[in-house]
Amino acid sequence: MTEPLLDAAGIEKGYGRISVLKGVDLAIAAGDAHVVIGPNGAGKTTLFKVLSGELIPDKGVVRFAGHDVTAMPGWRRTRLGIGRTFQVARTFKDLTTFENVVVALEAKRRQTASVFELLRLRPSDTVRKAARAMLDEFSLDTVADWPAGLLSHGDKKSLELAMALAARPRLLMLDEPTAGMAPADRRRSIDLISRLLAKGEFSLLLTEHDMEVVFGLATSITVLNYGEVIATGSPEAVRSNPRVKEVYLGHDVSAS
Amino acid sequence: MNRLGSPRLSQFVAILAGALLIGATLPLYANAGIVFLAGLVAIDIVIALAFNFLFATVGVLSFGQAGFILVGAYAAGVAIKFSGVSILPTLILAGVASAFVAMVIGLVALRRVSGVYFAVLTLAFASLGFVAVSKSEFLGREDGLTGITRPDLELGIAAISLTESVHFYYFVLAVCAVLIAVMWYSTSSQFGRTLKAIKQDADRSAFLGINVQGFRVAAFVLAGAVTGMAGALLGPLTQIVTPDLGYWTQSTKPILYAMLGGSGFFWGPAVGAVLFAVLSYATRTLVGMTEVITGGLLLVVVLAIPGGVLGVFQSIARLVRRRSAR
Predict the structure, then answer these.
(1) CA distance A81 to chain B (A)
(2) How far is it, in rounded angstroms, from Cα A12 to Cα A24?
(3) Which of A153, B98, B282, B308 has the fewest Cβ atoms surrounding its Cβ within 10 A?
(4) pTM to 2 decimal places
(5) pLDDT at A196
(6) What does the pLDDT look like over B100-117, one tens digit per residue?
(7) Predicted confidence band at B183 (pLDDT cuts at 50, 70, 90)?
(8) Does the structure show a pLDDT above 90 at B152?
């Protein structure tokens, strides 16, 4: 078996006396679309923060593509190839949609660009072309010159996704990508993610509440409950797992 | 066309050239006193632009910019008094010295704190510098360094004497123009774009692979170096360097200029500095009134036109355009 792309082992994290994660193990193979689910307060967001670099765990090790990234700050992880979005989409609201993508593309290029390109006043033609192409792909071309702060909720999410992908991540982490979306936007967003995923350029880790989204995208699922993994495996295996049914899926699926 | 696609280089060049033209022709009709003040205003403009670069582009409020004026002025003063180097190496030395100080402060302060705490910390550092210089025997204590001469401008093949006040004034204009161009370039290039992104959302920037702390420190060092080089001109211009240059009230001046002119505009602090100078000059004979008038003016600006003078102009321009569009 090949080494997983992301490998977290024995992750523990608490806030003060409240222990949120109690020894979580999680592995994502290259090409996976891995979804972490669990009831509210199960620790999904904390786990997400530990894996993305927003939080440093109290115990445990996070390895990414052979590197120990446990205590590595977020910007270094991003350079290694972990991209992420936030639960509430975060963009640069006073910059235009186009400028947002340009900043993201330039951040990526800065790792390899020549001094000459870095000192240019305007974004290079390559960056401008790439930005235009991304805006087209994400159906943001009509709002290219709007300040990002004026975009609709769904467009902001799309823009943030475009920015995360501008860094050409090997692993894309999405924290509840459809949270707070209208059903039509939600479907559009899922279509977009699965279309991008189909290109096979990155693996996916996401946390999600919506079961339609979970079973529509996932190739593997981890179920979290009170900071512990109670099941992990293929969607079918997880769905039929009696413990999962008992603590979580049973009533949630019938409720939705 | 996109705003970012074409940073308005031509507009910047036109405004800078216009300002230089006014500055350069000033000695033809104004008396020596006014020319001297104009040199001080040019230096003030650079210092205020550097402050506003930190405030409006990077998003950090530095309340200790006078500290860099002090470092630059004393570095230049010492170099001139004790070594006799020519003026350009003196300026470079002042820039390097203040850049180094800015780096140390930036690495300590920017890593730990932000917002108001950063402002207070920079104020503390600047006050520390003020006290240290005032107590230093070598730097002349409260009396400062007196009798600072104007070194020649050595350009490889020829040396130009700057002893004549008007010559030094032209030199000040030239240096300030270069420093202003540096500030504009830093605001408008990829560096500035990235800083604006960091200002709006540092976490989002970090997760795009941007070294937020590195960019902030670099910007702080740049602003410190530019401020120090502007400060280095003060000694030769006034022929004296005193600790008062680093007194905390000096740090409030760039803030005042930026607010008066409009901190949301690149040229805002420059407009503020010029307006303030004109106002001080006009009220110079009214003993004790200058402070009252400038204080009152500042109150009016902050309360009535938070966008500054340029903000008002912009609103008027928009109104006119809307009217004519009808």
Answers:
(1) 9
(2) 7
(3) B282
(4) 0.89
(5) 87
(6) 999 999 998 887 777 788
(7) very high
(8) no
The CA-atom distances, in angstroms, between A217 and each of A42, A181, A184, B145, B166 are: 21, 17, 17, 73, 74
Interface test with B, best of A122, A124, A157 (most B CBs within 10 A): A122
Minimum Cα–Cα distance from A99: chain B residue: B4
Closest Cα in chain B to A79: B209
Task: For residue B59, give the nearest of B169, B167, B187 by alpha carbon.
Answer: B187
Q: Is B89 left (phi over 0), alpha (psi -120 to 50) or beta?
A: alpha
Instruction: Convert the pLDDT of each residue in B204-249 to its tens digit.
Output: 999 999 999 999 999 999 999 999 999 999 999 998 899 988 888 8
Residue limits of CATH 3.40.50.300 in chain A: 1-81+172-256
- Please give the pLDDT value at position B250: 86
Q: Find which of B6, B188, B190 to mutate to test the A interface (most A CBs within 10 Å of its CB).
A: B190
Are A92 and B211 within 8 A, CB to CB?
Answer: no
CATH of A1-81+172-256, one of 3.40.50.300, 3.40.50.2000, 3.30.70.20, 3.10.129.10: 3.40.50.300
Q: Do A104 and B201 touch (CB under 8 A)?
A: no
Closest residue in A to B211 (Cα) is A75
**What digits encode the pLDDT tens for the residues B3-32?**
443 458 889 999 999 999 999 999 999 899
A54 reaches B (C-beta below 8 A):
yes
pLDDT of A192 reads 85
Nearest CA in chain A to B9: A121
Asked whether the beta carbons of residue A75 and residue B193 sit closer than 8 angstroms, the reply is: no
